[in-house]
């Protein structure tokens, strides 16, 4: 199974079948590292039986018995936990699909193709199945994310993926997708990142790609737009992109690439005026049109700087520094890298630099596997190498909110979860932290695992809260000693911006005016860190919980931090009373957090106009059936928009949690919502997947499948604790 290469090499395409045998797939959890395995040998398959978790991920029947129907909300939590416990993985955390974005798998498959990595038939087959299952039914194209309308970005990238994994161009689904792509203007109308990938693959010429000069990395730190100030994701994507752009590096030409040149364009390939299409883009892809500032800058770079003024010595120096920074990223993450976008691009850059047999390329490819995930629809690429620490923290907290941490029934599960968080705490800062522009991380937690090792303000906060809660519960051991807790606090305290708010991975290093240089077109809010009610609240509540147990440690700083943060929360409230969410959809998610922030300093519905307005905002949007149903469109437009498919349990839970945190005085609307959540629970204790839950960069949605367990149980548990006498 080797890729076709025109110049002499093998010409074999990946083998592709209708489907794989789902009883042969297993997910291995190696202390929080996930890899999927297809066992073709019968005996080996018997020796490694499928677990409940495997079957659940694959959509195979679990054959669980029905539980005693829940009469009270606490029974529903109990039933939910009975189900969810079966999905806990050996190392103590919960795994899940983390799909949604439709531009991640393409990076991985392009990296495989470029590095001449054989694609096993069972991968090829399930990638095909996933993409066919996720093609928009009306036009056969793909959007930026699974719920989005077809765009050139989604369609051209995934069309190329399908061809590279072995689907023929005359397959009816490919004919349909191609027609849509052509109707949207063809590949010349794609956004910057697709143009970059096409240039690297050799499907397009580099002249169609707007400049990505590595020289920016040489700017002194004081320059207001120097890349170290950018949001970490755009910075880490720009890095390999700039290296490859500078070299105008192109992969070896393969038959399939030659064929793609004829398929994805409307124009005749040889007659395309590449440079003239640098800024051609279809409106569906143009979420954030480039500003005149960026367009003028690009014009100067393309027409004057690059052809006339670009000294080779400086370019060499810039490439060398970009290359060093890539090495540091690899070293700091043991080649996991920040996310599969920069991981795929770094794989290509290292291949270009080090050749096919280099350790860098091998290790990056190995690690890339950890982002792949199999669902009943097929194989996809997760947004990160998992959601391990994040979901584990929320699971612990939902059990705490239900008052069940002391119940011996759940101790083994909780103890395993605590052990996981103990193991996953980041114990050291990265080497040469300042040199590679990283922020302090010692004592923190990453969103996924410690290998990836990027501490995030709210990931540190949620994990820390969970550890403190459990370690202060009778019957649990102290696995993380005081010093390690203090390390986490020290790191948390570095996350506050001058405004009082917290951002995600780092504090803000430049103003939001930097968005004027946003070249990605498909995303908003990507150039710098912003201020998030979600992250701010998580840190506030973690610090407050910590202070209760360790009242003396950095007490004054914590008090000042919390006061400033909560004051900022008030300033971020929208006139309609809600808060805009950046990581969950959308106002419902952030309003839940903001109400919790206010409550943490004693501001609730009865005594605070901010809290009251937040509650009124939520109540006004409750639906007839008692649920809430916000659509991802809110994230794009900044206005509250309802999802066409009706109430969602996750959204309903968020709203109820907010209202309960705020001591909303009327129990009736809360009861109605609780009833909806209970009614949706299945006889075996689970809840079913509904609409997508998460978002990033305003325009791209991402799935958080475990939220339908963690937040439902949290809402039900909080209700049970707050109104112990109520039945629903
Ligand atoms: C995530 C996932 C987790 C998320 C929360 C912790 C929920 C949030 O509160 C802070 C930001 C963070 C860590 C986050 C940032 C952006 C990520 C990494 C993602 C949404 C998952 C995927 C996304 C990443 C940017 C995807 C790659 C896309 C690019 C544009 C490079």
TrEMBL record:
Gene Ontology annotations for the cellular component aspect, listed alphabetically: lipid droplet
Domain Squalene cyclase C-terminal: 390-719
The keyword Lipid biosynthesis is annotated on this UniProt entry: yes
Start and end residues of each Squalene cyclase N-terminal domain: 86-278
The enzyme's E.C. designation: 5.4.99.-
An example molecular function term from Gene Ontology annotations: lanosterol synthase activity
Any GO BP: triterpenoid biosynthetic process
SUPFAM superfamilies on file: Terpenoid cyclases/Protein prenyltransferases (SSF48239)
Enzyme class: isomerase
A Pfam family matched in the record: SQHop_cyclase_C
Family: Belongs to the terpene cyclase/mutase family.
PANTHER family, sorted: LANOSTEROL SYNTHASE (PTHR11764:SF20), TERPENE CYCLASE/MUTASE FAMILY MEMBER (PTHR11764)
Protein name: Terpene cyclase/mutase family member
Species for this entry: Lasiosphaeris hirsuta
Biological classification of the source: Eukaryota, Fungi, Dikarya, Ascomycota, Pezizomycotina
């Amino acid at each position: 199974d080797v890729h076709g290469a025109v110049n002499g090499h093998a010409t074999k395409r990946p083998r592709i079948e209708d489907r794989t045998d789902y009883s042969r797939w297993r997910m291995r959890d190696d202390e929080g590292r996930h890899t999927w395995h297809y066992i073709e040998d019968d005996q080996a398959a018997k020796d490694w039986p499928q677990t409940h978790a495997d079957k659940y991920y694959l959509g195979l029947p679990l054959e669980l018995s029905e539980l005693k129907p829940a009469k009270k909300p606490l029974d529903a939590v109990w039933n939910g936990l009975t189900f969810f416990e079966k999905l806990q993985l050996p190392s103590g955390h919960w795994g899940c699909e983390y799909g949604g974005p439709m531009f991640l798998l393409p990076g991985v498959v392009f990296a495989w193709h470029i590095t001449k990595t054989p694609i096993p038939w069972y991968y090829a087959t399930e990638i095909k199945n996933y993409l066919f299952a996720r093609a928009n039914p009306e036009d056969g194209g793909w959007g930026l994310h699974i719920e989005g309308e077809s765009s050139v970005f989604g369609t051209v990238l995934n069309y190329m993926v399908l061809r590279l994994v072995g689907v023929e161009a005359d397959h009816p689904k490919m004919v349909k997708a191609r027609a849509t792509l052509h109707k949207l203007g063809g590949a010349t109308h794609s956004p910057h990142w697709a143009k970059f990938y096409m240039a690297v693959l050799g499907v397009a010429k580099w002249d169609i790609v707007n400049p990505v000069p590595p020289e920016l990395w040489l700017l002194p730190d004081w320059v207001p737009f120097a890349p170290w100030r950018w949001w970490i994701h755009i910075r880490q994507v720009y890095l390999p992109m700039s290296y490859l752009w500078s070299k105008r590096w192109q992969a070896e030409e393969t038959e399939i690439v030659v064929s793609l040149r004829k398929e994805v364009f409307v124009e005749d390939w040889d007659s395309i005026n590449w440079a003239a299409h640098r800024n051609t883009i279809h409106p569906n892809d143009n979420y954030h049109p480039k500003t005149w500032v960026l367009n003028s800058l690009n014009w100067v770079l393309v027409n004057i700087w690059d052809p006339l003024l670009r000294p080779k010595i400086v370019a060499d120096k810039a490439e060398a520094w970009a290359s060093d920074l890539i090495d540091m990223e690899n070293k700091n993450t043991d080649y996991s890298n920040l996310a599969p976008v920069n991981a795929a691009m770094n794989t290509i850059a290292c291949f270009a630099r080090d050749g096919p047999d280099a350790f860098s390329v091998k290790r990056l490819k190995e690690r890339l596997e950890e982002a792949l995930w199999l669902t009943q629809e097929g194989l996809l690429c997760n947004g990160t190498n998992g959601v391990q620490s994040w979901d584990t923290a929320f699971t612990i907290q939902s059990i705490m909110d239900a008052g069940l941490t002391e119940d011996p029934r759940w101790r083994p599960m909780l103890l395993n979860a605590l052990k996981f968080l103990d193991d996953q705490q980041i114990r050291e800062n990265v080497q040469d932290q300042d040199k590679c522009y990283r922020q302090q991380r010692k004592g923190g937690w990453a969103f996924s695992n410690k290998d990836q090792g990027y501490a995030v303000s709210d990931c540190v906060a949620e994990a820390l809260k969970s550890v403190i809660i459990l370690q202060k519960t009778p019957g649990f051991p102290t696995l993380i000693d005081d010093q390690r807790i203090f390390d986490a606090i020290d790191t948390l305290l570095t996350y506050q911006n001058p405004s009082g708010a917290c951002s995600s991975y780092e504090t803000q290093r430049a103003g939001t005016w930097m968005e004027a240089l946003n070249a990605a077109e498909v995303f908003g809010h990507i150039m710098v860190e912003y201020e998030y009610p979600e992250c701010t609240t998580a840190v506030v509540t973690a610090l407050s919980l910590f202070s209760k147990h360790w009242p003396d440690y950095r007490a004054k700083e914590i008090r000042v931090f919390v006061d400033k943060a909560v004051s900022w929360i008030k300033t971020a409230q929208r006139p309609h009373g809600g808060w805009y969410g950046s990581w969950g959809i959308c106002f419902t998610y952030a309003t839940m957090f903001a109400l919790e922030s206010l409550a943490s300093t004693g501001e609730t519905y009865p005594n605070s106009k901010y809290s009251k307005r937040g509650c009124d905002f939520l109540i006004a949007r409750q639906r007839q059936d008692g649920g809430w149903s916000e659509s991802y469109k809110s994230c794009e437009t900044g206005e509250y928009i309802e999802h066409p498919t009706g109430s969602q349990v996750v959204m309903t839970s968020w709203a109820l949690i907010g209202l309960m945190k705020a001591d909303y005085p009327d129990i009736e609307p809360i009861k109605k919502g609780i009833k909806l959540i209970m009614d949706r629970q299945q006889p075996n204790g689970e809840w079913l997947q509904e609409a997508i839950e998460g978002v990033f960069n305003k325009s791209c949605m991402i799935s958080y499948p475990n939220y339908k367990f963690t937040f439902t149980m949290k809402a039900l548990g909080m209700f049970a604790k707050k109104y112990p006498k109520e039945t629903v």
